[in-house]
Amino acid sequence: MHNLPFTLPACDQPATARIEVYSTTPTGESLDAAVYACTNQHVADAMAAIRLAGFTAHRTPLDVDVQRRCGAVHVFPTGRLAHTGHPAWCDRQDCAGRLEHRSPALPANPSGGELVDVRVALVQLTAAPTVTLIEVTFTDTPTDVVVRVLPLGQAVSLAYRVLELNDVAKGRQR
Ligand SMILES: [Zn+2]
Ligand SMILES: [Zn+2]
Predict the structure, then answer these.
(1) What integer pLDDT is reported at residue 8 of this predicted model?
(2) Domain boundary assignment for the chain
(3) Strand-strand pairing, 100-102 and 73-75
(4) Is residue 148 over pLDDT 70?
(5) Interval between CA 59 and ligand 2 midpoint (Å)
(6) Which of 41, 42, 48, 64 is deepest in the core (most CB within 10 A)?
(7) Ligand with minimal distance to 72 CA
């Protein structure tokens, strides 16, 4: 059984569609899995679940000589869903050497003209793979870089507080 980051419909009816699951890697697209589904509804449900988990989903017709059940999954051993010891979001750049799994850093600079460059990334220490952290990097000048690491739950709480303050700043009723 594969430990997939998304839950698929699994009604076991004969599949009518094949869905290719891709992820984006620093070097391009990675074909990670083929997922099978029966009705249009289950195809749509499966594609929504795959996209919600951060993957790209492409529907392809099922070859006439292929028989699969709704919910069946083929995980490609070369892809990012294979059991490689990395979280699905990891960029896989020398995790053993840097002692941590890291996601690509996402910029939080909406206008592009901010005085401080802010980026956020997921981090997991290879020694503590059950704890996922958010790393926030503030770059003021090339020599003035501040890195803060928060537990993911606290970072989410922070995000909600910022949204609340945004509402307050705009004078909205809550
Ligand atoms: Zn189905
Ligand atoms: Zn890794």
Answers:
(1) 93
(2) 17-75, 95-169
(3) unpaired
(4) yes
(5) 29
(6) 42
(7) 1
